[in-house]
Amino acid sequence: MEVAGSAERGTTERVLALLGLLEQRQVWTGPELADRLRVTPRTIRRDVERLRTLGYPVHASQGTGGGYQLGAGQDLPPLLLDDEEAIATAVSLLAGAGGAVAGAGDAALRALTKLDRVLPTRLRPEVRALSGSVASFSGGRTPVNPEALMTLARACRDEVEAGFDYPSSSQLRQRRVEPYRLVASDRRWYLLAYDLDRDDWRNFRVDRMTAVSARTWRFRPRAAPDAATYVQESVASRVYPHQARFLVHASADTVRAQISASAVVVRERGRELCEILSGAANLDAVLVRVLLLGHDFEVLDPPELGDRCRELAQRLLSASPGRSVP
């Protein structure tokens, strides 16, 4: 793309144009850059120093084939994007945050909230339109409304109240919260927030929210639980009527690799021991979940689950051909 300039262009605009040229080609001579930007070689040298001050590693070499070259730096300097690049970046990040890119959700959302600070208002309708055309046929995280996700991310960042409709007892209820953190599991996005109407911490599934909005009322952040730990323990156990704890004779890393983090909480208890916390609609389901891991284990809580283990063991023995029950 031809870069047109004039002697009257501002210093900032001229430096940005210089950076754009350095990104387009591997090596430029000083006279070539001066001619393209319509300035003197001395001005080019000054602008190169300005880029270096900003963190861009611009190398200069003498002789035949020498010139200015943009190198790879150890630190990531500010990214400069034109309109098309900004739109493409935002849409790609929205796809990753929504789960279309496996494992990229957290990083994509963090990057998207940074981009959101500087994305021009005129580009937002095009980003919204293009993001609506992005789809994925792969499994993984439950799809969420990208605008709802961004609204909540902004509210967390700006420390302002948020509101949304949320199903409760088979009907939608309006919730008013102080949003604290967005947490991504292997399946879903959750919001950890302080529920102002219930005066307590709650976590909410983002895919179940509708009419998500950020308010203008700012709040002072409270002392909060660790977001990831709180959400995981709630999803894996607290939401169920029955919970159980087990001591498993295997390392925590081994067990975590075998089962979803949304199904159990795994706590390290030694090199070859770990504690499992899980919940389900009934204790038999929790017991089978741990049994199928294939490791020796002991029931820690509740005590009656130990009796249930013995009862099921007798039933399994009686079902085995040629085995007599003692």
From TrEMBL:
What UniProt keywords are attached to this protein's entry?
A: DNA-binding, Transcription, Transcription regulation
Keyword set includes Heme: no
Record-linked Pfam families:
HTH_11, WYL
Q: Which GO terms describe its molecular function?
A: DNA binding; DNA-binding transcription factor activity
Gene3D superfamilies assigned: Winged helix-like DNA-binding domain superfamily/Winged helix DNA-binding domain
Q: Which residues form the HTH deoR-type domain?
A: 11-66
Name of this protein: Putative DNA-binding transcriptional regulator YafY
* Source species: Actinocrispum wychmicini
Q: Where are the annotated coiled coils located?
A: none
